[in-house]
Design brief:
two-stranded antiparallel sheet; disordered C terminus; alpha/beta; 304 residues; Glycerol-3-phosphate (1)-acyltransferase
């Protein structure tokens, strides 16, 4: 598998996206549960049939492009292949000299967000990301290679990893989180997400409140073939600072209100480009039980 992964890493992006489109439709056709979630979630968000078809293709493209993104050599710069929209807002937040909580949902090429940030701003303000290590040894090694780059580091999704993020923010660094993933039992609250209660992580809200960090929204748009040819680029990163009134809520002590505000921010961001969101993700599932982590998570701030 490692050889196949590394072989795919050398393929042109257009080939990978073509392969991914087929993979997306194959998964949709073969898995009744995947198909049901895709239909239900897109309908709940008000998407039409054409947008759902595009989302099916983009879900496969997201998987197929991973070898190229994770296998990219540390010396191979993204350069102009990644365009920026909202770069000035990021530069202003970095200039403030305090930490940044960077939030991005499972939309577009979300794996590219941290890499693009690290290349552009990591020399001034490094980014730290939380991740769940792969169970396969060969894939775990590739993920470490992908997520330990100049200006970028990562920590496993454990109590020590959360403490590392908190320390990084207090040092004035950046932390990247995907707040639309379902956390373990005890590490979240139920909050509306597209009109349906979803178990939502409280980590983002707590980190922002404990550190007073700036909060920014990012998404990385996957460009189509014609756009890539016209713009001579593969992706476009969109960045924006959350409104001051929302940031005030995130800096407050009401975790429930802050978490609901984050879900609303994610909804708004997703609907900017709904075709590229990972709608088939089981967002409304019951959280898994990891009580040994949950029991100590609230002590992270006091112990650092």
């Amino acid at each position: 598998m490692a050889r196949l992964f590394l072989m795919l890493a050398s393929w042109p992006l257009g080939w990978l996206h073509t392969l991914g489109t087929g993979m997306g439709w194959l998964a949709y056709g073969l898995s009744p549960s995947y198909r049901a979630r895709m239909r239900l979630h897109t309908q709940r968000a008000g998407l039409g049939a054409a947008q759902r078809r595009a989302a099916i293709a983009h879900a496969g493209q997201m998987v197929a492009e991973l070898p190229r993104i994770w296998g990219r050599a540390h010396t191979q710069l993204l350069g102009s292949r990644v365009l920026w929209q909202g770069e000035d807002a990021v530069a202003q937040a970095v200039a403030e000299g305090k930490g940044i909580v960077l939030l991005t949902p499972h939309i577009g090429c979300f794996e590219m967000v941290a890499q693009a940030y690290a290349e552009r701003f990591g020399g001034q303000q490094p980014i730290n990301a939380l991740y769940r290590p792969a169970k396969q040894g060969w894939l775990a090694e590739i993920m470490v290679h992908a997520r330990q780059r100049p200006g970028m580091s990562s920590s496993p999704a454990t109590l020590s990893g959360v403490r590392h993020l908190l320390r990084a923010l207090k040092r004035g660094e950046t932390v990247g989180l995907l707040p639309d993933q379902v956390p373990p039992q005890g590490l979240g609250v139920w909050a509306p997400f597209f009109g349906q209660p979803a178990y939502t992580m409280t980590m983002a809200a707590k980190l922002a409140a404990q550190t007073g960090a700036a909060v920014m929204l990012f998404r990385c748009e996957r460009l189509g073939r014609r756009q890539r040819q016209q713009l001579q680029a593969d992706y476009r990163v969109h960045a924006e600072r959350v409104p001051p009134e929302t940031e005030a809520v995130l800096h407050g002590n009401d975790v429930q209100a802050a978490t609901e505000a984050i879900n609303h921010l994610m909804e708004t961001l997703i609907m900017q480009c709904p075709e590229q969101y990972l709608w088939a993700y089981n967002r409304y599932k019951q959280p898994r039980a990891e009580m040994h982590t949950a029991a100590t998570s609230d002590k992270a701030g006091a112990d650092t």
